Amino acid sequence: MNIFNQYGIKEVADVTFYSITRVGDEEFYTPVLFFDTLKVSTVKKTVKTVNATGGKGNGKVISWNFGKEITLSLEDALFSDASLDMFLNGRI
Known about the structure:
mainly beta, two-stranded antiparallel sheet, 2 helices
């Protein structure tokens, strides 16, 4: 089954990264980087499954999934100086 059909992910847009500054008990959010051309490149899903059996030599009675993890990779069609600076931890 295609994971895009299962979860309905086709395109991601309008992502904003913020710088959070704390002054006392207040937090101030300043936009640092804005992406509006993001596209989903890959989605990987991993699941751990455990089976309970009816004893030695018997078949499976029940099974359950846990530890689900979905990794979403995104691509940006445009590359700017601000995005390069963020990827390189402010070295530009």
